[in-house]
Amino acid sequence: MQQSVNIRAKELKEKIEGIIPKRLSGVFECYGFSIDDLMTPIKWKPLVLIIGNYSSGKSTFINEFLGMDVQRTGQAPTDDSFTILTAPEEGESPGDLTGSTVVADERFPFGGLRKFGEKLLSHLVMKRIDSDKLKDIAIIDTPGMLDSVTEQDRGYDFLGVIGELARLSDLIVLMFDPHKAGTIKETYKVLRMTLPASAGEDRVLFVLNRIDECENLEDLVRAYGTLCWNLSQMTGRKDIPRIYLTYAKIPGKEVPQEFKVWEKEREELKKALMDAPRMRLFHMLQEVDRAVRELGLVIRAMDKFKEMFVSRLKRFVKSVGIAAVFAFLMGDLVMNLLTGYPSDPFLLSLVTGNLGVDTFLWPIIWFLFTIGIGSFYFQKITFPRFIREVASNPDRLVELKSAYDRDLWERVRHRVAELIDKDARHQIWVRHKRNLARLEKVVKTELQSMYDKVRMF
Ligand SMILES: Nc1nc2c(ncn2[C@@H]2O[C@H](COP(=O)(O)OP(=O)(O)OP(=O)(O)O)[C@@H](O)[C@H]2O)c(=O)[nH]1
Ligand SMILES: [Mg+2]
To answer: Looking at the structure, do residues 195 and 343 belong to the same domain, yes or no?
Structure first.
């Protein structure tokens, strides 16, 4: 089973890597989107991210899952590093890689962490260990969450890093313990912002760990209830996602008999981690789906921009046209009245029927002059003003019908403003409608058929 999921994932990846750049790279580039950004989250092994409060038992769980003592554990905040655990690639030997090596290595998807600075890099490590379980997945152990005041002492944007890692991850284990289930709210917000809306919460596994520390069942029910309440506040959903109730078997610590029924949930959680490669299949498609929808919204906005521009231009051309005709008819007459030259202005010649080729000279000059002044004015004044106006309020460019659209727009709004600000002259020549049609065709055909295949699996 595992083997065939891996094969599927590989096939799908190759398909995405083959089809998307071929069909859409032109469209992506046209709007300043990079195909590489889209490919980054899917380029390495499936990733499992473990986050939660300090001392909630993250590292203990990882050690247990791997069947070896890899991560340090202990009461009070133990770990202040992000640790990527994986098996060495073929032909490479076990050992640690430093943060700066990890972010610089093109094979890994972690280049985006560089923006969080040196301080983070000194708290990032990749441990390559001989473990069969880590051949097909990598696990990221994270520093435990503290309260928000102490978060600021870390010296880097902790939640930003969590967001970036969540974007890359196929499965996210969010671990609570009965004592501190509240401090996770900020983290959840970050997750919600980074996960594609189509991913929902299915990429997140909620775990209430250390339940053996509850005095009795009553105590556990209370802790569970509190967590459900907190979760519903965070997710805004009425249904409660599954919460794994687990505990580690700590040597020497007796577990009350009635808690033993939950032993199997620990095993199920471990199994769920092994499901990461299958989740990767959905993740890949969700990434493509998200990128394509975001791009679709940008294209629609740019199409509207072009439409507004054309209508503004039409109005301007109409005014300049009227002025030019006026100048054609009256220009030399006014000259004649002021200076006496030319002696036979166009209108008079027209009335007297004395039209010669010469009579057209000044009207044409006036006509062209007016058009020249008009287009100069448009280029230097009207157009830049129009751009400033639209770029400062791009919301006018889109009609957002659903909450999903509004979410998407939040993410791409600044890109639209930037495109208008920096690339407007080019954008008005782009055939947005054709690009949109191309994009929609890929969504309806290729992407849909990939989804169907993955669902069947
Ligand atoms: N009773 C009990 N103790 C646990 C359980 N899981 C972990 N512990 C203990 O809790 C302490 C903290 O565990 P860690 O695994 O280090 O927790 P962590 O979440 O990695 O902590 P940080 O890395 O500091 O964020 C250790 O002393 C563990 O032995 C559990 O399920 N039950
Ligand atoms: Mg730890």
So the answer is: no
Residues 84 and 213 placed together within one structural domain of the fold: yes
Residue 31 buriedness (CB in 10 A; 0-12 / 13-18 / 19+):
buried
Across the chain, mean pLDDT equals: 87
Tell me the β-bridge partners of 176. 208
CA 84 to centroid of chain Cα atoms: 22
Q: How far is the CA of 49 from the centre of ligand 2 (A)?
A: 12
- Percentage of residues in the chain with pLDDT exceeding 70? 92
What per-residue confidence (pLDDT) applies to 395?
A: 95
| Token pair of 412 as six digits | 């791409």
Choose which residue among 54, 65, 70, 73 to substitute to test ligand 1 binding: the one with the highest number of ligand atoms within 8 A of its C-beta.
Answer: 73
Q: Which atom of ligand 1 is nearest to the CA of 213?
A: 1
The residues placing their C-beta within 5 Å of ligand 2, an ion, are 58-59, 79
450 alpha carbon – ligand 1 mean position (Å): 41
Same domain membership, residue 70 and residue 119: yes
Token digits for 22? 């071929």
Q: State pLDDT tens for residues 31-66.
A: 988 887 777 777 888 999 999 888 899 999 999 999
Looking at the fold, whether 304 and 262 belong to one and the same domain comes out as: no
> Alpha-carbon distance 2 to 279, whole Å?
12
Domain boundary residue, one of 243, 274, 305: 274
Q: Are residues 212 and 323 in the same domain?
A: no
Domain enclosing residue 235, as ranges: 45-274
